[in-house]
Amino acid sequence: MAKNVPVYKNFINGKWVSAKSGKTFKNINPADTREIVGLFQDSDERDVNDAVAAAKEAFKKWRLVPAPKRAELVMNLGLWMKKNKEKLAKDATREMGKVLNETRGDVQEGIDMALFCSGEGRRMYGETTPSELPDKFAMTVREPLGVCGMITPWNFPMAIPCWKVMPALVCGNTIVIKPASFTPLTVLNLVKGCEEVGIPKGVINYVTGSGSKVGDPLVKHKDVNMISFTGSTDVGRNINIAAAESFKKIGLEMGGKNAVIVMDDANLDLALEGVVWGAFGTTGQRCTATSRCIVHRKVYNKFLKMLIEKAKTIKVGNGLDEKNEMGPAIDESQLLKDLEYVEIGRKEGAKLVCGGKRLTGEKYKYGFFMEPTIFADVNRKMRIFKEEIFGPILSVIPVNSFEEAIETQNDCLYGLSGSIYTQDVNRAFSAMRDVHTGIFYVNAPTIGAEIHLPFGGVKQTGNGHREAGKTALELFSEWKSIYVDFSGRLQRAQIDTDALVKVK
Predict the structure, then answer these.
(1) What angle do CA 291, 184, 74 make, to 5 degrees?
(2) From CA 149, how far away is CA 165, in angstroms rounded?
(3) Bridge-partner residues for 481, per DSSP?
(4) CA-CA distance, 26 to 5, in Å (whole number)?
(5) What per-residue confidence (pLDDT) applies to 496?
(6) Which pLDDT belongs to residue 500?
(7) What's the DSSP call for residue 412?
(8) pLDDT at position 502, please?
């Protein structure tokens, strides 16, 4: 499988170019490590500098293109993605592992974001408002930021870059994007789409490589006006600190430790489907994954038994095989981390009731596969309750009341997504109010956000910004307040306002 491996290049100022280092790195299929998906450029600060310089120069003209015209290109990009959806999905599965149905959804989310943002090109509304002085007009308009640096993750290799790229382009910014080193091909495909639909040279630039050699220089570059990052809380914290020196605008989307509450009046069959999908979809490698399941004691034993039986039926394997329902961990280190947390849970006294092992045998010998894993009788002091694992491991926690369930849900460093299963409308609305997360679901799992609503969280999940929806415009633009005085004389706001205003 190592023969005829394609070599992919960076995209800088409208040209596909090699890294200054002359080095490349391998992109490996996590479901079958015999397959090298491609060789990608091992770039460094010199390549970042070239990309930023190209983006800075392109910004001079791109910002003057009318927003509806910029949006038309974004719409064409979405239609290009729709036309090529199956190929884009298969490439994403090859390099990050999740099953084809999920990567099709990943690409569809990117399509949806493109088409949504294309409409925003005609709806970037400002405001007009009365002035406190006569013969004076007041209004607000949006302006682009300039060069936007984007550092994107591997678990949603098409959707999350699209959350950033589409609104940034419509707002009039130029882009330097560094994809995760596990999934450079999917972002390269997106950039190829930009090239094919005619987005001008220098407007989008693509540089591959490590966080230390590409990400850090991008964050610290003096000509980068904002950084949009999705990834771990630890890395996000470091980016925030590094960017503070130059007062860059920062958008951070980071970790989660999401919980589903299953009350004693819940539709247990519905809750079962939601919890299993939330916990084991994408092999648990989602920031919104259901990592904790908080169950009322009245239905605890029954629901736990249902969970175990359902989890044991999940078909694990290569995501390109349509029969499989769960793919591999992204790499060996993530798999070992997952297995380490199994041992941590055992030592803490949690009861391992399902899975917990690496899958072996001919079907799994070349991939990073693990059994869907469930721990029962977890309590709030345990690390498996508190820490983000990013793997197919579900902790089940018994509680005695609705109030205890809410308290348990909120006992977390993160605040991305939450959920409750109940038939009681009063409990549902109380949970909507009292669960401290940026996203909340009733009778649905913690995953499944739609692109026209804001996406993001509270506490250590983010820094207050939201992606997707019209709120994405807030992240990728600045407000300008404009005053037009047509009185022909000096008028002093806050000073002359007490004077009698005479009607001419």
Answers:
(1) 95
(2) 10
(3) 140
(4) 10
(5) 83
(6) 46
(7) S
(8) 58
> Which one-letter amino acid corresponds to residue 33?
T
Name the catalytic one among 72, 109, 120, 253.
253
Lookup: tokens for 44: 């460094």
172/225 Cα distance (integer angstroms): 13
Residue 438 has a pLDDT of 97
For residue 15, give the amino acid letter: K
- Is residue 309 within 8 Å of residue 372, measured between CB atoms? no
Q: In the block, which residue shows the tokens 């630890």?
A: 234
Question: What per-residue confidence (pLDDT) applies to 3?
Answer: 67
In 3-state terms, the chain is what percent helix, strand and coil (to 5)?
A: 40, 20, 40
Helices 67-83 and 85-96: crossing angle in degrees, nearest 10, is 80
Q: What is the dihedral of CA 434, 436, 439, 444, to 10 degrees?
A: -50
Helix (H) or strand (E) holding 376, with range, is strand 373-376
- Sign of the C-alpha dihedral computed for residues 50, 53, 57 and 62 taken in this order: positive
Residue type, 163: W
Residue 142 identity = R
Helix axes 159-171, 67-83, angle to 10 degrees: 160
**Tokens (6 digits) for 51:** 């990309």
- Token code pair at residue 470: 């019209």
Picking from 38, 256, 285, 329, the residue whose alpha carbon sits closest to that of residue 156 is: 285
Pairing relation of β-strands 147-151 and 174-178?
parallel
CA dist., res. 111 & res. 366, Å (int): 33
> Within 13 A of 180's CA, how many CA atoms are on the CB side?
23
The crossing angle, in degrees rounded to 10, of helices 67-83 and 184-197 is 120
Q: Of residues 171, 287, 293, 354, which has the active-site annotation?
A: 287
The C-alpha atoms of residue 384 and residue 395 are separated, in whole angstroms, by 7
Residue with tokens 């239609």: 79
- Could you tell me the strand order of the sheet in which 226-230 lies? 15-17, 10-12, 204-206, 174-178, 147-151, 226-230, 249-253
Rg of the chain (C-alpha set): 25
Please give the Cα distance from 24 to 18 (Å, whole number).
9
Instruction: Mark residue 303 as left, alpha or beta (left: phi above 0; alpha: psi -120 to 50; beta: remaining).
Output: alpha
Please give the Cα distance from 460 to 232 (Å, whole number): 10
**CA-CA distances (angstroms) from residue 389 to 291, 334, 401?**
8, 9, 27
Taking residue 403's Cβ as centre, other Cβ atoms within 10 Å add up to 11
Closest CA to 467 of 208, 192, 226, 204: 226
Q: Enumerate domains of the chain plus CATH numbers.
A: 10-254+462-480 (3.40.605.10), 258-442 (3.40.309.10)
57 is catalytic: no
Which residue in the block uniquely carries the two structure tokens 């949009």?
A: 228
Is residue 287 among the annotated active site residues? yes
From residue 202, alpha-carbon distances to 16, 48, 108 in Å are 12, 13, 26
The H or E element containing residue 167 is helix 159-171
Q: Low-confidence residues of the chain, pLDDT below 70? A: 1-3, 499-504
